[in-house]
Design a protein that fits this description.
Helix content: 40-55%
Shape: globular
Structural class: alpha/beta
Bound molecules: guanosine-5'-monophosphate
Number of helices: 8
Number of strands: 9
Length: 198
Amino acid sequence: MSKMGILIVISGPSGAGKGTVLKRLVELDPDNYCLSISATTRSPRFGEVDGVNYFFKSKEAFEEMIAHDEFLEYAEFCGNAYGTPKKYINEMLCSGKNVILEIDVQGGLQVKEKYDDCVMIFLMPPSLKILEERLIERATEPIEKIKMRMERASLELEFIHQYDYLVINDILSDTVTHFKNIICAEHLRTSRTLFDIL
Ligand code: 5GP
């Protein structure tokens, strides 16, 4: 197994279940996985905590982070800005942890340009109909925002071919197993492992 951690990009429409899957993955194996915490100008949803789910920032504070070159990538999504702070990611990768970025496709493609050995995984619900039902059930956004997110989901699907893996999130435990298997196989790639035995 390679000793460096792997940078993993997870994208997929909101409502695909990325948060739930990743939470479970990290809970099961906290020594090997960690989640990057993004900064955003979006307001916290009920139950979201600053510094845990996101670093919630004003637009001005976000702009300042851009000016200080603090982001690995950043993008605008449905009217809000989101960005991955650089600090922390390299440290974690060097310590051997697999670092997961849960980001949209624009951000994912920016990361791929900078880290060409990152692993890109796209998570999808079983169908777009189920996606809409999940977003309505979640009830965290007004209906016009849900519509915006559905439109955005269709747009993001156009980029699916740029991703290395497509995982359908139907049964949570199966999805988590698929993720673990992907990362296990990625660690065994010759390009990562050969370096360790020379
Ligand atoms: P939400 O508002 O549902 O938490 O996130 C909306 C979208 O922003 C999701 O697709 C999520 O993956 C993406 N996102 C979260 N953090 C980042 C980030 O740091 N960078 C980018 N590019 N997208 C992000």
